[in-house]
Amino acid sequence: MTVAEFYGGIEYSVTQFAVQLTNEIEEKIVMRELFYEDQITRYIERRAALFIQSLNLSPAISAVMKKDVMRHVLFKLKPVMNRHIVFKLVK
Question: Which of 1, 78, 3, 4 is nearest to 44 (CA)?
Answer without folding.
Answer: 78
